[in-house]
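Researcher: I'd like a candidate sequence for this fold, 394 residues long. If you have to choose between options at a position, lean toward the conservative one.
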Protein backbone atom coordinates (compact mmCIF):
# COMPACT_ATOMS: atom_id res chain seq x y z
CA UNK A 1 0.00 0.00 0.00
CA UNK A 2 1.30 3.46 -0.96
CA UNK A 3 -0.68 6.38 0.48
CA UNK A 4 -0.35 9.95 -0.81
CA UNK A 5 -1.67 12.82 1.29
CA UNK A 6 -2.79 16.11 -0.27
CA UNK A 7 -3.36 18.99 2.14
CA UNK A 8 -3.59 22.72 1.49
CA UNK A 9 -2.51 23.66 5.03
CA UNK A 10 -1.27 21.66 7.99
CA UNK A 11 -4.30 20.61 10.07
CA UNK A 12 -3.62 17.06 11.38
CA UNK A 13 -2.19 15.89 8.05
CA UNK A 14 1.41 16.02 9.29
CA UNK A 15 0.57 13.76 12.23
CA UNK A 16 -1.16 11.34 9.85
CA UNK A 17 1.83 11.41 7.48
CA UNK A 18 4.23 10.69 10.35
CA UNK A 19 2.22 7.66 11.48
CA UNK A 20 1.91 6.33 7.93
CA UNK A 21 5.66 6.77 7.42
CA UNK A 22 6.36 4.86 10.62
CA UNK A 23 4.21 2.05 9.27
CA UNK A 24 6.06 2.12 5.94
CA UNK A 25 3.06 3.06 3.77
CA UNK A 26 3.53 6.82 3.14
CA UNK A 27 4.14 7.48 -0.55
CA UNK A 28 4.07 11.28 -0.50
CA UNK A 29 2.91 14.22 1.60
CA UNK A 30 1.98 17.03 -0.79
CA UNK A 31 1.75 20.38 1.02
CA UNK A 32 2.39 24.09 0.48
CA UNK A 33 4.69 24.11 3.53
CA UNK A 34 8.50 24.02 3.10
CA UNK A 35 10.44 20.88 3.98
CA UNK A 36 12.18 22.46 6.96
CA UNK A 37 8.70 22.58 8.52
CA UNK A 38 7.78 18.98 7.78
CA UNK A 39 11.09 17.78 9.24
CA UNK A 40 9.71 18.75 12.65
CA UNK A 41 7.36 15.76 12.28
CA UNK A 42 10.26 13.42 11.45
CA UNK A 43 9.23 13.26 7.81
CA UNK A 44 12.12 12.65 5.39
CA UNK A 45 12.51 15.10 2.53
CA UNK A 46 12.13 12.40 -0.11
CA UNK A 47 8.57 11.74 1.09
CA UNK A 48 7.52 15.41 0.92
CA UNK A 49 6.46 17.49 -2.08
CA UNK A 50 6.45 21.20 -1.22
CA UNK A 51 4.30 23.43 -3.46
CA UNK A 52 4.44 26.89 -1.85
CA UNK A 53 2.96 29.06 -4.62
CA UNK A 54 -0.67 28.96 -3.45
CA UNK A 55 0.33 29.70 0.15
CA UNK A 56 2.47 32.66 -0.95
CA UNK A 57 -0.41 34.03 -3.02
CA UNK A 58 -2.78 33.72 -0.04
CA UNK A 59 -0.35 35.62 2.19
CA UNK A 60 0.04 38.33 -0.44
CA UNK A 61 -3.74 38.66 -0.80
CA UNK A 62 -4.10 38.91 2.99
CA UNK A 63 -1.53 41.70 3.19
CA UNK A 64 -3.06 43.63 0.29
CA UNK A 65 -6.76 43.24 1.03
CA UNK A 66 -7.20 41.36 4.29
CA UNK A 67 -9.60 38.49 4.87
CA UNK A 68 -12.10 39.66 2.26
CA UNK A 69 -9.59 39.50 -0.62
CA UNK A 70 -8.17 36.19 0.63
CA UNK A 71 -11.61 34.58 0.71
CA UNK A 72 -12.52 35.92 -2.74
CA UNK A 73 -9.40 34.24 -4.10
CA UNK A 74 -9.78 31.03 -2.09
CA UNK A 75 -11.29 28.97 -4.90
CA UNK A 76 -8.45 30.03 -7.21
CA UNK A 77 -5.77 29.24 -4.61
CA UNK A 78 -7.33 25.84 -3.91
CA UNK A 79 -7.60 24.98 -7.59
CA UNK A 80 -4.01 26.06 -8.27
CA UNK A 81 -2.61 23.92 -5.45
CA UNK A 82 -4.82 20.95 -6.35
CA UNK A 83 -3.78 21.03 -10.01
CA UNK A 84 -0.11 21.12 -9.03
CA UNK A 85 -0.57 18.29 -6.52
CA UNK A 86 -2.17 16.00 -9.12
CA UNK A 87 1.15 15.86 -11.00
CA UNK A 88 2.80 14.02 -8.08
CA UNK A 89 0.34 11.16 -7.53
CA UNK A 90 1.87 8.54 -9.81
CA UNK A 91 2.66 5.39 -7.85
CA UNK A 92 -0.09 5.94 -5.26
CA UNK A 93 -2.46 3.09 -4.45
CA UNK A 94 -4.58 5.21 -2.04
CA UNK A 95 -5.00 8.99 -1.89
CA UNK A 96 -6.06 10.84 1.26
CA UNK A 97 -6.92 14.41 0.28
CA UNK A 98 -8.26 17.33 2.27
CA UNK A 99 -11.52 18.84 1.11
CA UNK A 100 -11.24 22.00 -0.94
CA UNK A 101 -8.01 21.05 -2.73
CA UNK A 102 -8.65 17.49 -3.93
CA UNK A 103 -10.90 17.89 -6.98
CA UNK A 104 -8.06 17.51 -9.54
CA UNK A 105 -6.79 14.44 -7.66
CA UNK A 106 -10.27 12.92 -7.76
CA UNK A 107 -10.44 13.43 -11.53
CA UNK A 108 -6.94 11.92 -11.88
CA UNK A 109 -7.74 8.89 -9.71
CA UNK A 110 -11.12 7.91 -11.14
CA UNK A 111 -10.01 6.48 -14.53
CA UNK A 112 -7.13 4.69 -12.76
CA UNK A 113 -9.53 3.14 -10.22
CA UNK A 114 -7.46 4.43 -7.30
CA UNK A 115 -9.57 5.02 -4.17
CA UNK A 116 -9.63 8.53 -2.70
CA UNK A 117 -10.46 9.24 0.93
CA UNK A 118 -11.62 12.85 1.28
CA UNK A 119 -10.91 14.44 4.66
CA UNK A 120 -13.61 16.86 5.83
CA UNK A 121 -12.60 18.17 9.24
CA UNK A 122 -15.63 20.44 9.65
CA UNK A 123 -19.33 19.73 9.21
CA UNK A 124 -20.84 19.31 5.74
CA UNK A 125 -20.24 22.55 3.86
CA UNK A 126 -23.95 23.37 3.62
CA UNK A 127 -24.47 22.76 7.35
CA UNK A 128 -21.40 24.80 8.28
CA UNK A 129 -22.57 27.78 6.21
CA UNK A 130 -26.09 27.59 7.67
CA UNK A 131 -24.91 27.42 11.30
CA UNK A 132 -22.52 30.34 10.95
CA UNK A 133 -24.91 32.54 8.99
CA UNK A 134 -27.58 32.00 11.66
CA UNK A 135 -25.19 32.80 14.52
CA UNK A 136 -23.86 35.98 12.91
CA UNK A 137 -27.42 37.10 12.19
CA UNK A 138 -28.39 36.52 15.85
CA UNK A 139 -25.62 38.95 16.82
CA UNK A 140 -26.65 41.45 14.12
CA UNK A 141 -23.31 40.89 12.44
CA UNK A 142 -22.59 40.23 8.78
CA UNK A 143 -20.87 36.94 8.11
CA UNK A 144 -17.85 38.47 6.44
CA UNK A 145 -16.02 37.09 4.68
CA UNK A 146 -18.69 34.63 3.58
CA UNK A 147 -17.55 31.37 1.99
CA UNK A 148 -17.56 32.02 -1.78
CA UNK A 149 -20.03 30.04 -3.85
CA UNK A 150 -17.18 28.65 -5.96
CA UNK A 151 -15.56 27.13 -2.85
CA UNK A 152 -18.86 25.58 -1.74
CA UNK A 153 -19.55 24.11 -5.19
CA UNK A 154 -16.02 22.72 -5.42
CA UNK A 155 -16.42 20.91 -2.10
CA UNK A 156 -19.82 19.51 -3.05
CA UNK A 157 -18.29 18.03 -6.20
CA UNK A 158 -15.57 16.43 -4.09
CA UNK A 159 -18.16 14.81 -1.83
CA UNK A 160 -19.83 13.22 -4.86
CA UNK A 161 -16.60 11.88 -6.37
CA UNK A 162 -14.79 10.60 -3.28
CA UNK A 163 -14.63 6.87 -2.57
CA UNK A 164 -15.06 7.62 1.14
CA UNK A 165 -15.27 10.77 3.27
CA UNK A 166 -13.22 10.76 6.49
CA UNK A 167 -14.93 12.60 9.35
CA UNK A 168 -13.42 13.19 12.81
CA UNK A 169 -16.55 13.26 14.95
CA UNK A 170 -20.15 12.20 15.43
CA UNK A 171 -21.16 15.83 14.88
CA UNK A 172 -19.59 15.90 11.41
CA UNK A 173 -20.90 12.42 10.61
CA UNK A 174 -24.47 13.45 11.47
CA UNK A 175 -24.16 16.57 9.31
CA UNK A 176 -23.36 14.39 6.28
CA UNK A 177 -26.09 11.87 7.05
CA UNK A 178 -28.53 14.77 7.34
CA UNK A 179 -27.56 15.86 3.83
CA UNK A 180 -28.42 12.45 2.40
CA UNK A 181 -25.05 10.67 2.32
CA UNK A 182 -25.12 6.97 3.13
CA UNK A 183 -23.28 5.86 6.26
CA UNK A 184 -21.13 3.33 4.38
CA UNK A 185 -19.48 6.20 2.49
CA UNK A 186 -18.16 7.71 5.73
CA UNK A 187 -15.05 6.81 7.72
CA UNK A 188 -15.35 8.00 11.32
CA UNK A 189 -11.91 8.37 12.93
CA UNK A 190 -11.44 10.43 16.10
CA UNK A 191 -8.26 12.55 16.20
CA UNK A 192 -5.43 12.30 18.70
CA UNK A 193 -3.10 14.33 20.90
CA UNK A 194 0.64 14.55 21.44
CA UNK A 195 0.92 12.85 24.82
CA UNK A 196 4.60 13.84 25.08
CA UNK A 197 3.65 17.53 25.03
CA UNK A 198 0.41 17.41 27.05
CA UNK A 199 0.32 15.69 30.43
CA UNK A 200 -1.02 16.35 33.94
CA UNK A 201 0.76 18.54 36.49
CA UNK A 202 0.19 20.04 39.92
CA UNK A 203 -2.11 23.05 40.08
CA UNK A 204 -0.37 26.04 41.66
CA UNK A 205 -3.29 27.83 43.35
CA UNK A 206 -6.85 27.37 44.64
CA UNK A 207 -8.64 29.46 42.00
CA UNK A 208 -11.41 27.63 40.14
CA UNK A 209 -10.04 28.39 36.70
CA UNK A 210 -12.10 27.85 33.55
CA UNK A 211 -9.88 27.73 30.48
CA UNK A 212 -10.51 27.93 26.74
CA UNK A 213 -7.80 27.86 24.06
CA UNK A 214 -8.37 28.77 20.42
CA UNK A 215 -9.57 31.70 18.34
CA UNK A 216 -11.76 34.21 20.17
CA UNK A 217 -14.43 34.19 17.49
CA UNK A 218 -18.14 33.91 16.82
CA UNK A 219 -17.63 30.40 15.43
CA UNK A 220 -16.04 29.30 18.70
CA UNK A 221 -19.01 30.66 20.70
CA UNK A 222 -16.87 32.88 22.94
CA UNK A 223 -19.89 35.08 23.73
CA UNK A 224 -21.84 32.05 25.03
CA UNK A 225 -18.87 30.94 27.13
CA UNK A 226 -18.56 34.41 28.64
CA UNK A 227 -22.26 34.55 29.49
CA UNK A 228 -22.13 31.07 30.99
CA UNK A 229 -19.19 31.95 33.21
CA UNK A 230 -20.82 35.19 34.32
CA UNK A 231 -24.16 33.49 35.01
CA UNK A 232 -22.47 30.82 37.15
CA UNK A 233 -21.40 33.63 39.53
CA UNK A 234 -18.65 31.53 41.12
CA UNK A 235 -16.56 32.60 44.10
CA UNK A 236 -12.77 32.71 43.66
CA UNK A 237 -13.06 31.88 39.96
CA UNK A 238 -11.48 33.03 36.72
CA UNK A 239 -12.14 32.59 33.01
CA UNK A 240 -8.87 32.33 31.08
CA UNK A 241 -9.08 32.85 27.31
CA UNK A 242 -5.95 31.80 25.43
CA UNK A 243 -5.84 32.51 21.71
CA UNK A 244 -5.75 35.04 18.94
CA UNK A 245 -8.35 37.77 18.61
CA UNK A 246 -10.56 38.34 15.55
CA UNK A 247 -12.20 41.53 14.36
CA UNK A 248 -15.33 40.54 16.31
CA UNK A 249 -13.53 39.79 19.60
CA UNK A 250 -13.90 43.28 21.16
CA UNK A 251 -17.66 43.12 20.70
CA UNK A 252 -17.90 39.52 21.93
CA UNK A 253 -16.00 40.36 25.11
CA UNK A 254 -17.47 43.83 25.66
CA UNK A 255 -19.12 42.78 28.93
CA UNK A 256 -16.11 40.91 30.33
CA UNK A 257 -15.34 41.87 33.91
CA UNK A 258 -12.38 41.54 36.22
CA UNK A 259 -12.72 37.76 36.43
CA UNK A 260 -11.98 37.32 32.72
CA UNK A 261 -8.44 37.30 31.32
CA UNK A 262 -7.74 37.22 27.57
CA UNK A 263 -4.00 36.72 27.22
CA UNK A 264 -3.69 36.34 23.45
CA UNK A 265 -1.78 33.73 21.49
CA UNK A 266 0.48 31.30 23.37
CA UNK A 267 3.00 28.98 21.63
CA UNK A 268 1.98 25.31 21.56
CA UNK A 269 4.88 24.25 23.77
CA UNK A 270 3.69 26.62 26.52
CA UNK A 271 0.01 25.64 26.50
CA UNK A 272 0.57 22.70 28.84
CA UNK A 273 1.42 25.10 31.68
CA UNK A 274 -1.95 26.85 31.38
CA UNK A 275 -3.87 23.57 31.19
CA UNK A 276 -2.09 22.23 34.27
CA UNK A 277 -3.02 25.28 36.31
CA UNK A 278 -6.72 25.17 35.37
CA UNK A 279 -9.76 23.34 36.74
CA UNK A 280 -11.97 22.68 33.71
CA UNK A 281 -11.85 23.23 29.95
CA UNK A 282 -14.92 24.67 28.19
CA UNK A 283 -15.57 24.78 24.45
CA UNK A 284 -18.79 26.52 23.42
CA UNK A 285 -18.38 26.31 19.64
CA UNK A 286 -21.24 26.87 17.22
CA UNK A 287 -19.50 24.77 14.55
CA UNK A 288 -16.26 22.87 15.09
CA UNK A 289 -15.65 19.53 13.42
CA UNK A 290 -13.23 18.38 16.09
CA UNK A 291 -11.59 20.64 18.66
CA UNK A 292 -8.03 19.30 18.97
CA UNK A 293 -7.66 21.45 22.07
CA UNK A 294 -10.19 19.15 23.76
CA UNK A 295 -7.77 16.25 23.42
CA UNK A 296 -4.97 18.41 24.82
CA UNK A 297 -7.08 19.34 27.83
CA UNK A 298 -8.05 15.72 28.55
CA UNK A 299 -4.42 14.66 28.27
CA UNK A 300 -3.61 17.20 31.01
CA UNK A 301 -6.33 15.75 33.22
CA UNK A 302 -8.95 18.45 32.72
CA UNK A 303 -12.66 17.61 32.64
CA UNK A 304 -14.36 19.13 29.61
CA UNK A 305 -17.65 20.94 29.12
CA UNK A 306 -18.41 21.19 25.41
CA UNK A 307 -21.27 21.69 23.01
CA UNK A 308 -22.70 19.01 20.76
CA UNK A 309 -21.05 20.81 17.81
CA UNK A 310 -17.39 20.30 18.80
CA UNK A 311 -16.47 16.64 18.49
CA UNK A 312 -16.22 16.48 22.28
CA UNK A 313 -18.99 13.90 22.43
CA UNK A 314 -16.64 11.37 20.83
CA UNK A 315 -14.04 11.97 23.53
CA UNK A 316 -16.52 11.83 26.40
CA UNK A 317 -17.93 8.53 25.11
CA UNK A 318 -14.50 6.89 25.23
CA UNK A 319 -14.87 6.21 28.95
CA UNK A 320 -17.51 3.66 27.98
CA UNK A 321 -20.30 4.63 30.39
CA UNK A 322 -23.74 5.66 29.19
CA UNK A 323 -24.44 9.36 29.77
CA UNK A 324 -26.67 10.54 32.57
CA UNK A 325 -29.44 12.84 31.31
CA UNK A 326 -29.41 15.88 33.59
CA UNK A 327 -32.25 17.83 31.99
CA UNK A 328 -32.10 20.90 29.79
CA UNK A 329 -30.19 18.92 27.18
CA UNK A 330 -27.20 18.37 29.50
CA UNK A 331 -25.55 14.94 29.34
CA UNK A 332 -23.10 13.94 32.07
CA UNK A 333 -20.19 11.61 31.27
CA UNK A 334 -17.38 10.34 33.51
CA UNK A 335 -14.95 12.95 32.12
CA UNK A 336 -17.29 15.93 31.70
CA UNK A 337 -20.52 17.31 30.28
CA UNK A 338 -22.09 17.69 26.85
CA UNK A 339 -24.37 20.73 26.43
CA UNK A 340 -26.50 22.12 23.58
CA UNK A 341 -24.90 24.71 21.32
CA UNK A 342 -25.83 28.34 22.07
CA UNK A 343 -26.87 27.48 25.65
CA UNK A 344 -24.94 29.61 28.12
CA UNK A 345 -27.32 28.56 30.90
CA UNK A 346 -26.29 24.92 30.51
CA UNK A 347 -22.63 25.92 30.68
CA UNK A 348 -23.29 27.87 33.89
CA UNK A 349 -25.04 24.88 35.45
CA UNK A 350 -22.13 22.54 34.72
CA UNK A 351 -19.58 25.02 36.06
CA UNK A 352 -21.51 25.38 39.31
CA UNK A 353 -21.70 21.60 39.75
CA UNK A 354 -17.94 21.25 39.32
CA UNK A 355 -16.97 24.30 41.39
CA UNK A 356 -19.22 23.37 44.31
CA UNK A 357 -18.40 19.65 44.40
CA UNK A 358 -14.64 18.92 44.71
CA UNK A 359 -15.24 15.16 44.71
CA UNK A 360 -17.14 15.37 41.42
CA UNK A 361 -14.34 17.48 39.93
CA UNK A 362 -11.68 14.99 41.03
CA UNK A 363 -13.58 11.98 39.69
CA UNK A 364 -13.85 13.65 36.29
CA UNK A 365 -10.14 14.50 36.34
CA UNK A 366 -9.39 10.82 36.93
CA UNK A 367 -11.68 9.80 34.06
CA UNK A 368 -10.04 12.35 31.74
CA UNK A 369 -6.62 10.82 32.37
CA UNK A 370 -7.96 7.32 31.77
CA UNK A 371 -9.26 8.38 28.34
CA UNK A 372 -5.95 10.03 27.45
CA UNK A 373 -3.90 6.99 28.36
CA UNK A 374 -6.10 4.52 26.47
CA UNK A 375 -7.28 6.24 23.31
CA UNK A 376 -5.79 9.61 22.48
CA UNK A 377 -2.38 8.99 20.90
CA UNK A 378 -1.73 9.82 17.26
CA UNK A 379 -0.47 6.24 16.91
CA UNK A 380 -4.01 4.98 17.57
CA UNK A 381 -5.38 7.44 15.01
CA UNK A 382 -2.86 6.32 12.38
CA UNK A 383 -3.61 2.64 12.99
CA UNK A 384 -7.32 3.23 12.48
CA UNK A 385 -6.64 5.21 9.28
CA UNK A 386 -4.49 2.39 7.85
CA UNK A 387 -7.18 -0.17 8.65
CA UNK A 388 -9.74 1.93 6.75
CA UNK A 389 -7.43 2.14 3.69
CA UNK A 390 -6.87 -1.63 3.74
CA UNK A 391 -10.60 -2.28 3.85
CA UNK A 392 -11.14 0.15 0.98
CA UNK A 393 -8.45 -1.43 -1.22
CA UNK A 394 -9.71 -4.92 -0.43
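Model: Candidate sequence:
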Amino acid sequence: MKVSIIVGGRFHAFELARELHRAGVLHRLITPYPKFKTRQWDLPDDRVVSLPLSLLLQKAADRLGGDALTMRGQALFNRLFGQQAAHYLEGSTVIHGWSGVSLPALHWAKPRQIPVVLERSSSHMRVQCQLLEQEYASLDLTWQPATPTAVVNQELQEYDLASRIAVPSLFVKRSFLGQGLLEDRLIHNCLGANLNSFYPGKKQDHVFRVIYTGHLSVRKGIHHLLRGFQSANLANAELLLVGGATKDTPRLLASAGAGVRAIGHVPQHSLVNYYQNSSVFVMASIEDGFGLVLTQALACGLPIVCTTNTGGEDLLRMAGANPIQRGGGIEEYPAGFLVPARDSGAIATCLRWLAENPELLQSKRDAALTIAQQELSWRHYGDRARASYQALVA
